[in-house]
Amino acid sequence: MSLPGKFVEVAGVRIFVHRPAPSTPAAPRPPLVLIHGYLVSHWEWRAVLGPLAAAGFDVIALDLPGHGESDRPRDFTYGVAGFSEIVIGVMDALGIDKAPLFGHSMGGAIALYTAARNPERVPRLVVLDAACYPIALSLQNRLAVTPIIGPLLFKGVFGKRDIKNYFRDQVYRDPTLATDELTDYIYERMCRPGGKDALHATLVSLSNLGEVERSLRAIRCPTLVIWGENERLFPVENGRRMASEIPGAELVVIPDCGHAGNEERPAEVLAAVLPFLQQA
Fold first, then answer.
1. What is the pLDDT of residue 129?
2. H/E run at residue 272
3. Cα–Cα distance between 203 and 201 in angstroms, integer?
4. Alpha carbon of 62 to those of 17, 44, 84, 164: distances in Å?
5. How distant, in Å, are the alpha carbons of 105, 108, 207, 218 from that of 199?
6. What pLDDT, on a 0 to 100 scale, did the predictor assign at position 6?
């Protein structure tokens, strides 16, 4: 379930990058960096990669540390700030001076933070159901982020059934999208050396995103906020609030859509994203 790509090294960490080749030789294409959400990888963008590339963008879909095909270093600072440095480092390694960012869920939080702190590198910003505001955690999640007991529970108990239930009950509006193939893909990568430690550290960091929330009013680039109307993880009210707090931001709400519009409603997401990015 991984697409072809290559590794670039950022601060000693190997980062996997999928970068579709242009269908025909042409003038240099404007870059666009895609940042995935928690547990998943570049694979979550598969339904929109082709259309974005066909529209003329040099699409760069990376795997964050601890996810997909990238390294799982034990000494990495997992969290929005650390991931943001990786995004900028990948751009540097690829010789990209500036690029719009398109982030989903946790990737949206990273994109928001990066745009606020590196305005010269991010000319436009798209976020899809971005993590930002505090949410009410389930008992299972509260236990998972509890010191001492949390790591033991996460690494010892969290398994395939929990992954499937999470995607079926919280991520997708259509539960049939939570396939066994998806579950196996995520679980196999979680079980790679250092994988569970990396994902637990990331989960703990996501329980407090105050640094992202405080960044919103500092964002100055044109911003498009997209939200699924039937979002279960982050209610659509969060999207309305986010769009009101980012100066000049636009909001698009997609009907009959859960947390992963890029997978559930790719045509509707593209209909919003392409005109926005092509204004640049």
1. 98
2. helix 266-277
3. 5
4. 4, 11, 12, 24
5. 15, 17, 13, 29
6. 96
E strand or H helix at 246, and its extent?
none
| Domains: count for the chain | 1
Give the residue among 148, 147, 154, 198 at the shortest CA–CA distance from 41.
198
The C-alpha atoms of residue 69 and residue 88 are separated, in whole angstroms, by 19
Quick check: 223 and 248 in contact, CB under 8 A? yes
- Contact assessment for residue 269 and residue 259, using Cβ atoms and an 8 Å cutoff: no
Measure the CA–CA gap between 11 and 62, rounded to whole angstroms. 15
CATH code for the domain of 217: 3.40.50.1820
Cβ neighbours, 10 Å, residue 95: 7
> Would you state the structure tokens that stand for residue 25, as one six-digit string?
């030789």
80: Cα separation from own chain's centroid: 11
Please check whether residue 259 lies inside any domain of the structure. Answer: yes
Residues of the chain falling short of pLDDT 70: 22-27, 136-146, 148-150, 152, 280
How far from 102 is each of 34, 61, 70, CA to CA, in Å? Answer: 5, 10, 19
Residue with tokens 């259509």: 174
For 55, the domain range is 6-137+193-277
- Note whether 65 and 76 are within 8 A (CB): yes
Using an 8 Å Cβ cutoff, are 246 and 225 in contact?
A: yes
| DSSP secondary structure code for residue 275 in this structure | H
pLDDT of 153: 73
DSSP 104-133: ETHHHHHHHHHHHH-TTT-S-EEEES---S
